[in-house]
Known about the structure:
Blueprint lengths: L3 E10 L19 E9 L6 E8 L4 H9 L10 H5 L2 H9 L12 H22 L3 H6 L3 H5 L13 H11 L3 H11 L1 E5 L9 H13 L4 E5 L4 H15 L4 E5 L6 H9 L6 E5 L7 H11 L5 E4 L6 H10 L4 E2 L8 H14 L13 H17 L7 E3 L13 E2 L2 E2 L13 H6 L6 H4 L2
Parallel strand pairs: 4-10, 5-6, 6-7, 7-8, 8-9
Antiparallel strand pairs: 1-2, 2-3, 4-12, 11-12
Amino acid sequence: MTVITRLTTSDIRARTSRFLDGSDAAHADPDYSAAYAILHTDHVDGLQGQGFTFTIGRGNELCCAAIETMAHHVVGRDLAEITSDMAGFWRTLTSDSQLRWLGPEKGVIHLAVAALVNAVWDLWAKTEGVPVWQLVCNFTPEQFVDCIDFRYLSDALTRDEALDMLRATAPGKAARTAELLADGYPAYITSAGWLGYPEPKVRDLCQQLYGEGWRSFKTKVGISVVADRRRCEIMREELGDDVQLMVDANQVWDVPQAIEWMRQLDGFNLRWIEEPTSPDDILGHAEIRRALAPLGIKVATGEHVANRVIFKQMLQAGSLDYLQADACRVGGLNEVLAILLLAAKFNVPVCPHAGGLGLCEYVQHISAIDYIAVSATLDDRTTEYATHLHEHFINPAVVNNGRYVLPTAAGYSADLHPASASALLFPSGSEWIQA
């Protein structure tokens, strides 16, 4: 028996704006941040569940406040009581009769749900002594679907369909697990392509990362066609024509503008354009996808898609070629599991959004779950990676030769070193006192 005795929050921020790490056409000066939910327990070892939601600076305190409004849903409860009905627990959080007015299932309140839900998964996996990916992959199909709220999804995916899908992939789980443990999960890197980086830095980083074994890169675009063509030229000069290259506009274009802009970037053998327009524009993404298909440029989106319902409609409307779910934008791992099943039903590759502060640590679990338990394929799949801030985590994400190394430590890889948690605490940490 493990009882959650209290919940605390922590406003963690890194001053990445100093070096323009993470900069793009819509976010010129991000400070990578995480609003932490920390579940304290009566466990003899002082076990804690730690979960976070990602932001880029101002407003992180709003997420902390929203997390605190949900404390009554977990404090005083036995962990086993929660985990015996994870779908019910998730619906309780998202259906709080007063808090849901602030969403429902979107915005700050849903980001807070993600932090709390992910903290529960972290605690659950720690009590079992396994990483989250392994906890989920060890589930029976019935246990897997019992974590999912199928409300609003049944017109696209029913519980019975999900069970059939999971039963079909179950026989190969052991072999796929062994494969990932041996070879890792394929990744792409964004760290050479931040929009604020000058040309010499982009060249140096491309050379360095290529030398480290990376063969899939992404760069930011969206300021001017001339600048974007130049950035693509630079990266092709340094990387050659055989390396995957993707571009990301971070939502700055209108639909006709996106189509025309990308036509002017034709010729660089681009794999995809990411977030070409508003993340809520389901039909706009579909129109862009149709227009760019003759050029061989595909459409990827998802890091700002708020919930499984919008993803459902995007899949139904044929709006995307790659689904880039975020571990914290939607309501934590429960909702991510639903999205993985939806993507598999529509045969769309999942390439999760990462980077940020701790997102790589999360998505390595998500991609492993997708391959081992859900999709059973690595075809046309890569998971995002950025080099920043991993040193702050006790069990950081590790890459080798352009592939994620499967994590083995118990939990969801969210725990910060105590010294880092102190230094990055806003506004009193040394990172900010020296600002």
